[in-house]
Design brief:
- The chain is an alpha+beta fold.
- It has a single domain, classed as Trna Endonuclease, Chain: A, domain 1, CATH 3.40.1350.
- About 35% of the residues lie in helices and about 30% in strands.
- Strands 1-2-3-4-5 form a five-stranded mixed β-sheet.
- Helix 1 packs across helix 2.
- The radius of gyration is 14 Å and the shape is globular.
- The mean pLDDT is about 95.
């Protein structure tokens, strides 16, 4: 399954979860429910994945934690905030670069409508 196919499933699943739960809950709630929804749709889901940082040839285990990685190919960063900032968008781009993944989504469950809370990010993805 390629990144774009996974992405289509992710967007649909995020909208489904948001419609069921509504906005304003903790990110951790959306994370566990979205992970379940994606697994129900046949995808492999890893939560809170530790991603090490390599700096000048030295690997540091204390890198960052990706909220969700789907099928080892798509990174999901979940938020539950009133408004996504440019820093949040840079964060998902950095995560893509550091993981080597080509597609990521910043999903803000704090929005009134989920479709306005979805930011797609790419890193050398062939469309």
């Amino acid at each position: 399954m390629n990144e774009n196919t996974i992405g289509t499933i992710v967007v649909d699943a995020a909208i489904t979860v948001h419609r069921a739960l509504g906005p304003g809950l903790l990110e951790s709630v959306y994370e566990v429910v979205l992970a379940h929804e994606l697994q129900q749709r046949g995808l492999s889901v890893e939560r809170q994945v530790v991603v090490p940082i390599v700096y000048r040839g030295i690997e540091f285990k204390e890198g960052f934690r990706a909220d969700i990685i789907v099928n080892g190919k798509v990174v999901l960063e979940l938020k539950s905030v009133e408004k996504v900032t440019p820093a949040h968008k840079k964060q998902i781009q950095t995560y893509l670069r550091l993981t080597g993944c080509k597609l990521g989504y910043l999903l803000n469950f704090g929005e009134a409508l989920m479709k306005t809370g979805i930011t797609r990010a790419v890193n050398r993805l062939e469309e």
